[in-house]
Amino acid sequence: MDLRCGWLLGLVLLPGLALAAGKCERLVVTGSPDAPPYLWQDPQNPKRLIGASADLLQQVANDLGIKVELLYAGKRSQALDEVRSGRMDMLADAPLTLNELENLDYIHPPLLENDYLVWTRKGSTLVYSEAKDLHGHAGALSEKSRMTQAFGTFAEQNLTLIRTASLTQALQKLLLGEVEYVLAGRYSGMAAAQALGMANDLQVFEQPVDRPGLFLAVSHNSACNDPWLRGQFAKKMTELPASGLTEAALQRNIERWKAQQQQPQPPVSAPKQ
Predict the structure, then answer these.
(1) Per-residue pLDDT tens for 5-56?
(2) Tens-place pLDDT, residues 231-240
(3) Angle (nearest 5°) at CA 101 between 33 and 86
(4) What is the pLDDT of residue 19?
């Protein structure tokens, strides 16, 4: 896929100020195709990705005068390969991992933070206030979940967690009594429970067990990767939490996902976070 970055070279029309390297006019972005309400494949146009991350990125880019194309690039691993290579410029929902610092520049703060909560059956006697309370209890976690590395190490050493192919399967194990709890994102868990008609059968603890960020990450091989771009995005994302746009985007896309599941068209894959 060809890079779609245009560069406006020249001087800013303010005395003494130069545009250091130029301004990127267009970014080609990708991400997870199956992680509602953050990102998922548009059933009306499968070449596009939609969701809360897409909406917020479009808002920030519009403010900066940059055009963004959010395109489907295959499953998560394929999307990452496209960005590593520079064929696409940016990931919209990158988890922060040390290994990828060799390939990506992460823009801070994260575009969104994904609270992972403890979900149980209604009437469960499980008592939870912090992660160590889960020791000795059987739980489930989708293999698509992207927790922080610190929590992953803790879980491996202290928790009994069954990895399932999807969040749907994890919640089904919970309702069947095969596990006592499920770890799932606040909004992905809500979207999955509602889409599957399970919302009235579950209860959730509001204290997050983990809180990984979903970062914008620019490829080292992108012609659009320059300090001006990263700095402007960082500034705009610092302003987002106080604007109310983040919560509005999440709620809007939960409803969007639910509405799509009720339509007769072939659905996109169920939430996998």
Answers:
(1) 443 333 333 333 333 345 688 999 999 998 889 999 999 999 999 999 999 9
(2) 999 999 999 9
(3) 55
(4) 38
Secondary structure (DSSP) of 190-211: HHHHHHTT-GGGEEEEEEEEE-
User: How far are the Cα atoms of 44, 160, 255, 256 from residue 182, in angstroms, in the given order?
Assistant: 31, 11, 23, 24
Check if the beta carbon of residue 183 is closer than 8 Å to that of residue 118: yes
Full set of structural domains in the chain with CATH? 26-112+213-262 (3.40.190.10), 115-210 (3.40.190.10)
Work out the burial of residue 160: count CB atoms within 10 Å of its CB; fewer than 13 is exposed, 13-18 middle, 19 or more buried: middle
pTM equals 0.83
Q: Is 2 exposed, middle or buried (0-12, 13-18, 19+ CB in 10 A)?
A: exposed
Under a CB-based contact definition with an 8 Å cutoff, are residues 42 and 58 in contact?
A: no
Burial of 7 (0-12, 13-18, 19+ CB in 10 A): middle
Helix axes of 186-195 and 167-175: crossing angle, nearest 10 degrees? 70
Give the Cα separation of 92 and 162 in Å (integer): 28
Going by DSSP bridges, is the β-strand pair 39-41/49-50 parallel, antiparallel, or unpaired?
antiparallel
Cα separation values, 64 from 38, 108, 124, 183, Å: 22, 17, 49, 37
Report percent pLDDT > 70 for the chain.
88
Average per-residue pLDDT in the chain?
A: 88
pLDDT 10s digits, 136-161:
999 999 998 999 999 999 999 999 99
Query: How many degrees, rounded to 5, is the angle at CA 180 between CA 176 and CA 185?
Result: 100
